Amino acid sequence: MMGPYATMILGDYGADVIKVESPEGDVMRHAAPMRHPQMGAMYLQGNRNKRSIVLDLKKAGGRAALLRLAASADVFVHNVRPAAMSRLKLAASDLLAVNPRLVYASLHGFGEQGPYAGRPAYDDLIQGMTALPALTGRITGEPRYSPATMADRIVGLNAAHAILAALFHRNRSGEGQSIEIPMFETMAQFVLGDHMAGRSFEPPIGPPGYSRLLSPDRRPYQTSDGYVCALVYNDKQWTAFFRAIGLENEADRDPRLNSIASRTGNYDFVYGWFSEVMKTRTTAEWMRLFEEADIPHAPLHDLDSLIDDPHLAAVGLLQSIEHPTEGTLRVAGPAATWSRTPPSIRHYPPGLGEHGETILREAGFSDEGIEALVTEGALVNPPKDS
Predict the structure, then answer these.
(1) Which of 114, 183, 247, 300 has most Cβ atoms within 10 angstroms of its Cβ?
(2) DSSP letters of 126-166?
(3) pLDDT digit string (tens) for 55-107?
(4) Which PANTHER family match (predicted)?
């Protein structure tokens, strides 16, 4: 999802995104559930505002067509292993020779200067290599992956802003360039920003790991009839909480609760104590108390209640779009609000190869040239009845 997610963001910002697919199509097209073949839900959620062309890049005509598209493009994005792109003669040097103003963005597993260069990489593998399952295991006793394509989407976000920065440089200097956004290094930076801890210093003054995030009782809190999320964080909030539960007198409290220095030095005790207190009242009682005391809190959503959240409804995050084969689709739209150039959903996620001939005509191909590509098998059009 990292390449599709990055380019979806750029599409939301107004880019004309041409999605070049193999004859088999984006693998996420086949991820259930789906109403029709090659239109899986994950694909539909990550490919709006794009046009699709199917080119067999192993054929001479397919490669030539891609180079012709790249000649007038601003950005070329791929999430294929670099060795495969080199075999296809579609490396950065090949495309920049055709278009020196191009921003060539490579999204892959590992930086090309390190010993892991060229290895295959998927979200699960990168999560594992950047200690996320191990950190979960320290708390739960069993290492588990995040139930979201976290690495793919974080790398995709980084790719989107790296591409925009490269375009800013190009617009000032006229120079294109190649940029590499590796999954492992990007996610290592993400994790270690929290967890370098004592190894931030040379020599180390303690082990890695941010103790607050690793406290076993830092979790949604069980109440007498459910769960609630809350974070009593600063001194003002703690004072309000103690007042609300009848512990306003400092002498009545464990001294480990009485100052920010004591609390930050005893996270496991503080979270454990707080967990036990939370079990003494109902979810509704705690939500009301936190609201009155101005203490940060939130309901514990499941997926259905998240989708139906009234705030998301009010701000219009979930948008309905009409698709010619899939009917009405609900998608999570752009989250940011802009005063002058708001992102928008302008086009439904395309069928496989839906726009191939149109894209090639825009690039200057004649009808005869397009037919030659079809005959060669370099261009694959969708079936006539699709």
Answers:
(1) 183
(2) HHHHTTHHHHHHHHHSS----SS-HHHHHHHHHHHHHHHHH
(3) 999 999 999 999 999 999 999 999 999 999 999 999 999 999 999 999 999 99
(4) BLL6097 PROTEIN (PTHR48207:SF4), SUCCINATE--HYDROXYMETHYLGLUTARATE COA-TRANSFERASE (PTHR48207)
C-alpha R_g of the chain: 26
Q: How many CB atoms lie within 10 A of CB 358?
A: 11
CA 106 – CA 67 distance, rounded (Å):
16
Q: Tell me 248's DSSP state.
A: -
> 352, 25 in Cβ contact below 8 A?
yes
Helix H or strand E encompassing 362: helix 356-362
Q: Is the pTM of this model over 0.70?
A: yes
Q: What type of residue sits at position 231? A: L
Please state which CATH number belongs to domain 2-191+310-376.
Answer: 3.40.50.10540
Q: Domain 221-299 is classified in which CATH homologous superfamily?
A: formyl-coa transferase, domain 3 (3.30.1540.10)
Q: Are 366 and 341 in contact (CB under 8 A)?
A: no
Q: What is the domain partition of the chain in residue ranges?
A: 2-191+310-376, 221-299
**pLDDT, tens only, 192-246:** 999 999 999 999 999 999 999 999 999 999 999 999 999 998 999 999 999 999 9
